[in-house]
């Protein structure tokens, strides 16, 4: 079997695209930390399990954040609406002041808990000299820039492509096509690694980019024969074998 260096020099892979939230950045950990802070501050939320609250919060976040990504609402308005609905779900209609207070408690705990996924820093360090590294993410530009900075990933990322900036949302083809143009690589020279089957895997495949599913939750893979899968970014050498091996 050819070594990783030999395969990289042969031009098999010239660029690695990564999703950010729950691929490089541990959004789930930060979010659970924020929700745990809410449970300590508000009695009605403290009566439910963290897992139950997280499930409701994730459902609302996925629904309302699309309004932000489409430019139909501000991120601050949708944060307030998210927590208004959470309180209402548990039988309490609270004032706008309480909602803003809840947003503050959540955001403070979320920010204090920001961290990279385990294994990400050594992985990007190892890849950085072998391939162009780009982050392709659905969110607000300043939010994603700050996450990269806080996690120490900014020097390891060559290109950042954010939906707000380019006006296209994964899995739409345009955001991937813009990325390929910016990094001056063809689709067949590029891989995409992300946790969302629809946004990252199917989106990348839609423009001819080979995708690797980051399946940290160990879910059943919809296409186990055709799509490579990672459940962790450790051990490093084994992960590099999967990422850099020819398709």
Summarize this entry quickly.
Helix content is 52%, strand content 11%.
List keywords for this structure.
Rossmann fold, single chain, 12 helices, 247 residues, 2 domains, six-stranded parallel β-sheet, alpha/beta
Specify the CATH architecture of the largest domain.
Answer: 3-Layer(aba) Sandwich
SS-based class: alpha/beta
Strand content is 5-15%
Q: With helices defined by DSSP (H or I, 4 residues minimum), what is the helix count?
A: 12
What Rg do the Cα atoms give?
19 Å
Strand order, main sheet: write it out: 3-2-1-4-5-6
- Determine the oligomeric state from the structure: single chain
Distance between the termini: 14 Å
Total E-strand runs: 6
Report the sheet with the most strands, covering strand number, pairing sense and barrel closure: 6 strands, parallel
Count of discrete domains = 2
Helical content stands at 40-55%
Which topology of the largest domain does CATH recognise? Rossmann fold
Which residues sit in consecutive blocks of at least 5 with pLDDT less than 50? 1-10
What does this structure look like?
The structure is a single chain. The chain has 247 residues and is of the alpha/beta class. The protein folds into 2 domains: 153 residues, Rossmann fold (3-Layer(aba) Sandwich), CATH 3.40.50; 85 residues, Orthogonal Bundle (DNA polymerase, domain 1). 52% of the residues lie in helices and 11% in strands. It has a 6-stranded parallel beta sheet with strand order 3-2-1-4-5-6, sandwiched between helices. It is elongated, with a radius of gyration of 19 Å. The two termini are 14 Å apart.
């Amino acid at each position: 079997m050819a070594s990783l260096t030999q395969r990289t020099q042969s031009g098999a892979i010239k660029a690695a695209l990564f999703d950010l939230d729950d691929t490089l950045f541990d959004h789930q950990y930060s979010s659970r930390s924020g929700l745990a802070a809410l449970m300590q501050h508000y009695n009605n939320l403290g009566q439910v399990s963290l897992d139950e609250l997280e499930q409701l919060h994730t459902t609302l976040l996925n629904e309302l954040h699309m309004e932000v990504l489409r430019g139909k609402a501000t991120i601050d308005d949708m944060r307030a609406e998210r927590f208004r609905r959470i309180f209402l779900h548990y039988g309490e209609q609270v004032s706008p002041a309480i909602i803003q207070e809840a947003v503050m408690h959540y955001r403070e705990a979320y920010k204090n808990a920001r961290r990279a996924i385990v294994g990400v820093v050594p992985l990007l360090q190892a890849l950085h000299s072998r391939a162009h590294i780009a982050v392709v993410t659905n969110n607000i530009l300043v939010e994603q820039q700050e996450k990269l900075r806080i996690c120490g990933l900014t020097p390891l990322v060559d290109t950042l492509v954010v939906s707000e900036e380019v006006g296209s949302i994964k899995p739409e083809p345009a955001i991937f096509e813009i990325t390929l143009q910016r990094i001056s690589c063809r689709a067949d020279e590029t891989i995409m690694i992300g946790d969302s089957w629809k946004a990252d895997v199917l989106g990348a495949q839609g423009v001819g980019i080979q995708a690797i599913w980051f399946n940290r939750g160990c879910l059943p893979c919809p296409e186990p024969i055709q799509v490579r899968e990672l459940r962790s970014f450790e051990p490093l050498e084994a992960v590099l074998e999967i990422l850099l091996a020819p398709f």
